[in-house]
Specification:
The protein has 454 residues and is of the alpha/beta class. It contains 22 helices and 14 strands.
Length: 454
């Protein structure tokens, strides 16, 4: 069984079932599940897999030819790429699938590779088709540099598939033994990255998993916060400084300038690169008439694990080297962890609102979902249809009880945003006070949603 990738498999099979040959680009961040997805796709098909190296063009051809030799496919010692393609095609029955993983290494070292591939695919007879899947973990390169690099060969591409992080509900299915609260906490740390999920064990508590799988120097995730994006980023010291500054609460350009000492122009360039790698996001507040009360230019770390790393591990690396995982967790994480999870609980609530909208479980059929970031307070979720009907929400994670005061504060923020609230959804990880419960009974447009209902 493959969790959460039904649409991706259907997309790939749609192209495979077409007549003739194809070249598809499949890309996404490391550990997001690209390789597992492709394994599922090719399990009933004739397939050859090659993992490209960061090497010279000649060494690449030598290694590829050597791997073909291990499969009983003979080529020259340093075969041309066209010879490799032809040898694979002749050795496969039916429609062949050729997976070239981390193909950017080949393209970067040989500008002719994509032209040779496109010419070969164009020349393949209709009765002996082949499907090439070019796989990459370099999101920024694929989306911003690849087409310029390969030139006219880009016209030979049949399609693109971006493998994105999985939603919270898929993670819940992956960890059935975790409670809802534990699942939200794990999602706040690992995000929707299946390669990270494999490290955790839902028979253990969240603290024990963090100590064993992240704070333990022998664990895979111990150094992953530094490895993410490292291959694509030069001057990692600058990027680390900016990420650490954002994690410390400096979310605006001027705050980053004051903290880092870098020029605003330099920070803007480096943040742009981090955004292309999907490590940082710029928060765009929902467009309302209350623009005067809206905060602008807010940056957040969008990668859950990178955020966790730069919030807790990076500022305390010296202690991490000297303390046991349990000691480190107790001193630096335990007291602040619930507050850290708050933003990710909001993300979980938003995903449920999006799902209910798809399933037509909301009182309106929305075409826009966002948030409003105000100077005095925020509206965590805004759902609106094309006629202006609106649902507004706030999400309480930290407090054991959501109070009537929280409801009044949401109405105050809506007034500042100049939004008319037709419906109000209040999410709480804890309970609701009695005054709120009475209000919800009296007002048909007010709904209280606990974690048991999600």
């Amino acid at each position: 069984m493959i969790l959460g990738r039904t649409s991706e498999l259907k997309y790939l099979n749609t192209y495979y079932d077409r007549a003739g040959s194809q070249i598809m680009v499949v890309y996404g961040e490391r550990n997001v599940g690209k390789t597992f997805l492709l394994r599922q796709f090719v399990k009933d098909k004739s397939c050859f897999y090659y993992r490209a190296r960061s090497a010279s063009e000649r060494e690449q051809r030598y290694q590829w030819g050597g791997e073909l030799g291990k499969e009983g496919i003979k080529t020259a010692k340093y075969p041309a790429f066209t010879e490799i393609f032809r040898a694979i095609r002749q050795a496969q029955a039916d429609k062949a699938v050729v997976v070239i993983d981390e193909f950017q290494y080949i393209v970067k070292s040989d500008s002719t590779f994509m032209k040779e591939l496109a010419d070969f695919v164009y020349s393949v007879p209709q009765d002996t088709p082949v499907m090439f899947l070019l796989c990459s973990s370099s999101i920024g390169w694929v989306e911003n540099d690849m087409v310029a690099r390969i030139g006219e060969a880009a016209h030979g591409l049949s399609g693109f598939l971006k493998v994105r992080e999985l939603d919270f509900e898929v993670m819940r299915d992956y960890f059935p033994a975790f409670s809802m609260e534990q699942s939200v906490e794990v999602f706040a740390v690992l995000g929707g990255v299946p390669g990270f999920w494999k490290c955790f064990d839902d028979r253990l508590g969240v603290k024990e998993n963090i100590c064993r799988c992240i704070l333990n120097q022998d664990a895979f995730l111990y150094g992953e916060g530094q490895r993410i994006g490292k291959e694509e980023l030069r001057e990692t010291g600058v990027y680390n400084t900016i990420l650490a500054s954002i994690a410390a609460g400096n979310h605006k350009l001027n705050d980053l300038y004051q903290h880092t000492g870098f020029s605003r122009a330099k920070i803007s360039v480096y943040i742009k690169n981090l955004m292309e790698l999907e490590l940082v996001e710029k928060v765009f507040s929902y467009d309302t008439e209350g623009k005067a009360n809206t905060q602008k230019g807010i940056y957040r770390i969008s990668s859950h694990f990178v955020h966790f790393y730069f919030t807790y591990l990076y500022p305390h690396l010296s202690s991490l080297e000297q303390m046991t995982p349990g000691e480190f967790y107790n001193k630096y994480i335990e007291s602040f962890f619930r507050s850290y999870v708050t933003e990710y609980y909001k993300k979980v609530c938003r995903q449920y609102m999006e799902k209910w909208n798809r399933w037509e479980k909301l009182p309106i059929r929305a075409d826009r979902i966002g948030e409003w970031v105000g100077k005095l307070g925020n509206i965590d979720i805004i759902v609106q249809n094309d006629t202006g009907e609106t649902i507004i929400s706030i999400c309480n994670w930290e407090n054991p009880v959501m109070r009537y005061d929280d409801y009044e504060w949401l109405l105050f923020c809506a007034e500042k945003a100049r939004i008319r609230a037709d419906y109000i959804y209040l999410f709480s990880a804890g309970s609701f006070d009695e005054q709120l419960k009475r209000e919800a009974k009296e007002k048909h447009n007010l709904r209280l949603i606990s974690m048991d209902e999600m």
